[in-house]
From TrEMBL, chains A, B:
Higher taxonomy: Bacteria, Pseudomonadati, Bacteroidota, Cytophagia, Cytophagales
Cofactor: FMN
Listed name of the protein: NADH-FMN oxidoreductase RutF, flavin reductase (DIM6/NTAB) family
Pfam family, one: Flavin_Reduct
GO molecular function, one term: oxidoreductase activity, acting on the CH-NH group of donors, NAD or NADP as acceptor
Domain of life: Bacteria
Keyword Phosphoprotein among UniProt keywords: no
Boundaries of every Flavin reductase like domain copy: 33-166
Organism, as annotated: Algoriphagus ornithinivorans
Alphabetic keyword roster: Flavoprotein, FMN
Stated family: Belongs to the flavoredoxin family.
Length: 209, 209
């Protein structure tokens, strides 16, 4: 059975129901902890599911920020210091990762017990346990007029990855790294590989490689 | 063992290696087939991993388009007709979904054998087999100066979802819907749930709900 919601149905639905539904529609989302430190030295850690690829040459990443949420500290620290870290989450610490979204006073590292790490004189803190960590610097921001969402674009300046997850062709085995993915607002998963597929050509169905 | 790549290492690496690596860094990505039809009536279907949540009230979705790729037909059709569909992919047809990215002449539905479906007089074609289908209309586009990536924002006008995957609170069970997620350029996975977690509060570690 198929359930149909028109735009009117969506707009008239309960706001809690609507928020859950709309947040699930795109499908599985990446999960990263963003580490920042204010100029005054207070560090911050928050989970984000809106991080995506912008380009490989130069290596660029994009992040969407909703204004007026608990995530605002992260954006303010990035605008102030121009650097931040992205850290993949594993099943070992996904509950602590979710917990960083609570309204804490002070550092989420201390409060949740996630250990911070400083690498190569990079100002922003990394999450020590993370199997894939990126050091990034701000390139530009744009505010979307339609709902004040902020699109932040950053350069990838450092990659730290556990070698067991790095293949010879440069691709990463996210199953081996145990990266966690999120659906909706609060549901966490790991990936279970179906296959890698060959470059698509018209003459035959792509093959597993 | 941790492998470190500096920005110089990344820029000096082989372009194939770099493209694989950078495309994997954000983590698991959503996978949607975008269905469009040109004004002249030729329909098109292409896989996208850059679809994300922009807002719930009104319900908005964002898509990033790289210019000058095979995906360009999709963008041109949307600019021309202002409508498109988003369709989740399942293990049953993920190879055909990948195959739609080949350089076809004519309709990818016909060529790959994926059946199209028209619902509620909506001009753009849906993928019949998909367990979650959205009918969307163009709101605005912005071109990112840094690399000509196009950010398209659209309104969600129709949701069609298999009822077995819709929970009472509005959230979707993507494991039950069997939605596929993608890593890098060519690797496909399903999700394996860890848990849903309670709303995060400072007083205790979030609980499974």
């Amino acid at each position: 059975m198929i359930k149909h919601f028109s735009k009117e149905d969506i707009l008239e639905s309960d706001s809690f129901f609507r928020r859950n539904l709309i947040n699930c529609l795109s499908g599985y989302k990446s999960l990263n902890l963003i580490g920042t430190k204010s100029k005054s030295g207070i560090n911050n850690l928050a989970p984000f599911s809106q991080v995506f690829h912008i380009g490989a040459s130069p290596p660029l990443v994009g992040i969407l920020f909703r204004p007026h949420t608990v995530q605002r500290d992260t954006l303010e620290n990035i605008l102030e210091t121009e650097v931040f870290t992205l850290n993949h989450v594993t099943p070992e610490f996904y509950k602590e990762a979710h917990w960083t979204s609570a309204r804490w006073e002070g550092s989420e590292f201390e409060k949740t017990g996630l250990e911070e790490e400083y690498l190569e004189q990079f100002y922003a803190p990394f999450v020590k346990k993370s199997p894939l960590k990126l050091g990034c610097s701000l390139v530009e921001t744009q505010t979307l007029k339609i709902n004040e969402t902020v699109l932040l674009i950053a350069s990838i300046d450092h990659i730290y990855v556990e070698e067991k997850g790095l293949r010879q062709d440069g691709s990463l085995d996210l199953n081996i790294l145990e990266s966690v993915t999120v659906s909706g607002l609060d549901e966490y998963h790991v990936g279970e590989k179906l296959s890698r597929l060959s470059y698509a050509k018209p003459d035959k169905l792509p093959q597993e490689i």
